Amino acid sequence: MLAGLPVEFVGSFPDPHHTLEPAGPEIAFLGRSNVGKSSLLNALLGRRVARVSSTPGKTQFLNAYRLGRGYFVDLPGYGWARASKTERSRYRRLVHDAIARRASLTAVVWLLDIRHPPSDDDRAMQELLFGSGKPALVVLTKSDKFSRAERLRAVRARAGELGVPADQVLATSSTTGEGVAELAESIQAVLDGER
Ligand code: GTP
Ligand code: MG
After folding, report:
1. Ligand 1 atom closest to 42 (CA)
2. For the chain: N or C, fewer Cβ within 10 A?
3. Which domains does the chain have, with CATH numbers?
4. Quick check: CB of 39 below 6 Å from ligand 1?
């Protein structure tokens, strides 16, 4: 469904309030650096449009992709320990403003690594995100790193740590494609609600 739509890279914008035209629903991808945002975006679109790297910090600005009448917005990752203090505060401000103050943002896909409890940065982001009132889809990445039994345990553990029902946390893998179709459906439902 999403994978069938034509996709066009719109641009990379340092201004969190940059206006995308024509206006359409916008879905942002948020998460720690290296959590797999760009990979999941590519998996959802069924092609490699976003830049993926094992070196954290590759996504520096708001990278916008137009699909149909809406947009996917790939955000820089937060919490990259080796970024300079200046870079970190610049990313933090960009992400903060994009989530809390970007009026055109429709919903946020928030990614956490299935293997790790939320970090302090994740906690701060959760507060910002849940406080923003934007619909949020909570997604766990890299589920292929676990066996099936470990995966089920990890989903329950992460949901408990976040204080959200386990059935509202979706395990995904950009490598195996697990959960990608379900996520596409949830995103489509959000987009349909916009019409
Ligand atoms: P930044 O742009 O730096 O914030 O990173 P990102 O969140 O966009 O992560 P990216 O998609 O670039 O992936 C980071 C690393 O994790 C790369 O080495 C990917 O190949 C790897 N990776 C991403 N998704 C998965 C997954 O589902 N499974 C596994 N095993 N590796 C993954
Ligand atoms: Mg990225």
Report:
1. 11
2. C
3. 2-16+24-193 (3.40.50.300)
4. yes
